Design the sequence.
């Protein structure tokens, strides 16, 4: 079964094509085709990889839908076409950031589902428009092919009400203001992968998954189910991130609106794009640059790092309390997978949980490896998150017996 995956963002579009047989493999295979549109650079580009070996770069139209069309047609055109016909594609899976309260699992996209994704734009304004563009473009090119929405919030749908509810008037909760959580596709993949790597069953493990990229969140996972997470109603809550503030005193926002003559749009930009590591260091939110600057004696870089690590440690401790203990700590995403410094500083402050890091293994960590000492009570894993494969898996598992092209 050939499954096309769309993972759309505000300034980029990532896509890939998998071919899955009658059984799911134990480990994710390389996609047959990997395509990306980057509108964040000038000129915009379409970058295609086939079989992990050959790369092709094309100019990308500024018109997003036209660029998406050209991306899809590289599957059958160009120097090395992957398919003889687009009719060989069986399903298309879309990462959709927000499913609200209604969608708590992967869902076949119907006009009603599409309308709900559009209704939820205010909760994911940087992503849902691009999701809708992808859905419409696929429909235009591939007709009534089954399209599956894989919601980033779905993995957190079973968080208990006492953790999902904010301590504000209860009618707000009834209106949908609650903790939803995000990065769910990544958290779900890493939980399954951790169980596989440890040769354990998911129901045997208490896992804290640390998705640390430019956006960052933790998930407390028990019995393979997320029971708590640091992001909330929006992806702004929780950890200090690359350019996002994470949790702060909400009265600060009231103060700024009342006394600093800041508009709502300006405040939104400040909190999402000018805060976090970038807000403290002042130059960027790139962890690699901040660590290098700190090594060169930059005190502001050092302050940003101390704040980041301290908030991360505190959140891990809180999640461990929710779980009632900890069996496995996972680091994933850009910072989690690549920064030995962040992993070491974080684990140094968590020894009281039985966490013991092997510094040599940590320095030379590869994807999907255990970097704990043999006597550590908690296994420490570095896992390369593969959201696209998780989306493809969800599409493969989806009960579509009545859908065409199966």
Sequence:
């Amino acid at each position: 079964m050939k499954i096309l995956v769309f993972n759309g963002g505000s300034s980029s579009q990532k896509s890939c094509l998998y071919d899955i047989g009658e059984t799911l493999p134990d480990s994710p295979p390389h996609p047959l085709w990997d395509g990306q549109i980057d509108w964040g650079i000038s000129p915009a580009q379409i970058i295609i990889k086939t079989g992990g070996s050959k790369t092709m770069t094309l100019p990308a139209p500024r018109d997003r839908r036209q660029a998406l069309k050209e991306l899809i047609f590289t599957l059958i055109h160009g120097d090395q076409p992957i398919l003889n016909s687009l009719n060989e594609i069986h399903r298309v899976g879309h990462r959709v950031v927000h499913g609200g309260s209604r969608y708590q699992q992967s869902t076949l996209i119907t006009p009603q589902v599409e309308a709900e994704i559009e209704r939820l734009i205010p909760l994911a304004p940087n992503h849902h428009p691009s999701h809708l563009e992808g859905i419409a473009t696929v429909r235009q090119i591939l007709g009534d092919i089954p399209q599956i929405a894989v919601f980033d919030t779905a993995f957190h749908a079973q968080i208990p009400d006492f953790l999902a509810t904010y301590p504000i008037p209860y009618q707000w909760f009834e209106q949908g203001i609650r903790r939803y959580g995000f990065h769910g596709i990544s958290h779900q993949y890493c939980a399954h992968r951790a169980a596989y790597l440890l040769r354990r069953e998911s129901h045997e493990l208490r896992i804290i998954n640390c998705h640390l990229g430019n956006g960052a969140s933790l998930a407390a996972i028990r019995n393979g189910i997320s029971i708590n997470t640091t992001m909330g109603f929006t992806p702004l809550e929780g950890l200090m991130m690359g350019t996002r503030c994470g949790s702060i005193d909400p009265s600060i926002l009231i103060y700024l609106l009342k006394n600093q003559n800041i508009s709502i749009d300006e405040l939104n930009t400040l909190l999402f794009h000018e805060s976090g590591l970038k807000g403290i260091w002042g130059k960027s939110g790139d962890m690699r640059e901040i660590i290098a600057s700190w090594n060169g004696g930059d005190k502001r870089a050092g302050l940003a790092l101390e704040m980041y690590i301290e908030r991360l440690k505190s959140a891990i401790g809180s999640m461990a309390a929710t779980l009632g203990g900890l069996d496995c700590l996972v680091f994933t995403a850009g910072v989690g997978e690549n920064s030995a410094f962040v992993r070491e500083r974080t684990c140094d402050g968590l020894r009281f949980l039985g966490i013991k890091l092997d510094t040599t293994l940590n320095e030379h960590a590869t994807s999907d490896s255990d970097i704990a000492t043999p006597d550590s009570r908690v296994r420490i894993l570095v896992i390369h998150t593969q959201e696209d494969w998780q989306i493809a898996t969800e599409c493969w598992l989806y009960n579509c017996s009545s859908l065409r092209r199966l």
Remarks:
- The domain at 2-151 is CATH 3.30.420.40 (Nucleotidyltransferase; domain 5).
- The chain has a mean pLDDT of 92.
- The longest helix spans residues 299-323.
- The radius of gyration is 21 Å.
